[in-house]
Design goal:
Layout (H helix, E strand, L loop, with lengths): L1 E4 L10 E4 L2 E4 L5 H12 L13 H7 L2 H17 L27 H8 L11 H20 L5 E5 L20 H11 L5 E5 L6 H7 L5 E8 L24 E6 L5 H18 L3 E6 L16 H12 L5 E5 L5 H16 L1
Parallel strand pairs: 1-4, 4-9, 5-6, 5-8, 6-7, 8-9
Antiparallel strand pairs: 2-3
Helix pairs in contact: 1-10, 2-6, 3-4, 5-6, 8-9, 9-10
The structure holds N-[3-({4-[(3-aminopropyl)amino]butyl}amino)propyl]acetamide and zinc ion.
């Protein structure tokens, strides 16, 4: 298994996220990726690779240009409004919700933040763009290496995560959709049918929405039921795709408290769908926030279960790119991700 890591990830370091009327410490912290890289090295996966600069043609085929321009320039604009802003994160405070226009990009900075953000838990900081675009580069390069046959599989250790980010929106700690970029890069490298299997605790709403009307990329997500779990407004079983993409999205929501047995049966349903689709390559959105010790999630997978998750994913026997998404039990994160990698590599 090839491993990649994002050398710029530390540049994204949020201070606070809004939760129930308070600003609380961010869950999505730099140490998450550090501990994963450390554990992979300890287990003999070798020094992870880095990637050449992101191919912006791929990035612009997944994200809208005005949205990317906003992400790239947001910090400079924020600080230019008032130099004291340099000590603060960017968080939205107003949104174009029901009955308000989304088709005009306002000139006001706060209004732009609200246009592109869908929650108040995803701070933009001085280095957010640098971290995101370096992560995108890793995802694209991993896909290209796997498509070229350099190895059967690759693991991309990056942050911030990406699966909640859509064509022109961010949220859920995600800004640029690394998983979607890997899938698109596999398509561009000649794989006619690519499957995305999202095993993060949270529904991959961004990835679903990016590919919702496409028949060439199957999206499957096993996640906490959005009736009670973030991101709440997408991820129901009734969402099956639309237009040409009808039948090419599968959601497998599970109740709070789900243990490995029923979770595993849902994953097997997802794997069956990948096989029936006839994918020639697979992208796994790997969140380990399904872990019993996760502070913001409620499934009950153990560290040992993650070895079996890796085995199950490998049973597809497809060229596979695994992209790191969530997981907030920081101290156990390295072990959990490395367990998946070891289970996969056999
Ligand atoms: C990639 C990913 O896993 N994103 C998850 C985003 C979840 N954001 C909402 C979490 C609400 C956290 N609640 C804080 C509880 C403090 N006790
Ligand atoms: Zn998650």
């Amino acid at each position: 298994m090839l491993t990649f890591h994002n050398p710029a990830h530390r540049a994204h370091a949020g201070r606070h996220e809004m939760y129930r009327g308070r600003l609380v410490d961010c869950h999505e912290v730099p140490q998450r990726a550090e501990l994963v890289v450390d554990e992979l090295k300890r287990r003999g996966f070798g020094q992870p690779r880095t990637a050449p600069a992101a191919d912006m043609r791929v990035v612009e085929s997944i994200h809208a240009r005005p949205y990317l321009d906003f992400l790239r320039t947001a910090w400079a604009e924020w600080v230019s409004l008032d130099p004291s802003h340099a000590a603060l994160d960017i968080l939205p405070s107003v949104w174009p919700n029901h009955g308000l226009r989304r088709d005009v990009v306002p000139a006001n900075f706060s209004a732009k933040v609200g246009l592109y953000a869908f929650d108040a838990g995803s701070p933009i900081t001085a280095g957010t763009w640098d971290a995101c675009i370096a992560g995108a580069a890793c995802a694209i390069e991993a896909a290209r290496q796997v498509a070229a046959g350099a190895d059967r599989s690759a693991l991309v250790v990056t942050r911030p995560p990406g699966h909640h980010a859509g064509r022109d929106f961010y949220g859920g700690y995600c800004f640029v959709n690394n998983t979607a970029l890997a899938a698109q890069a596999l398509r561009d490298a000649g794989h006619a049918r690519v499957a995305v299997l999202d095993v993060d605790y949270h529904h991959g709403n961004g990835t679903q929405s990016i590919f919702y009307e496409r028949a060439d990329v199957l999206t499957v997500s096993v996640h906490g039921d959005p009736m009670t779990e973030y991101p709440f407004y997408l991820g129901h079983a009734s969402e099956r795709g639309a237009g040409a993409g009808e039948g090419f999205n599968l959601n497998l929501p599970l109740p709070r408290g789900t243990a490995f047995g029923p979770w595993r049966r849902a994953l097997e349903q997802g794997l069956d769908a990948v096989a029936r689709f006839g994918a020639s390559a697979l992208v796994v959105a790997l969140g380990v926030d399904t872990y019993e010790g996760d502070p913001i999630s409620s499934f009950r997978l153990t560290s040992a279960d993650f070895v079996e998750v890796g085995l199950l994913l490998a049973s597809c026997r497809l060229p596979t790119v695994i992209v790191l998404e969530g997981g907030y039990a920081v101290a156990d994160m390295g072990v959990n991700v490395a367990n998946v990698a070891e289970g996969f590599a056999g």
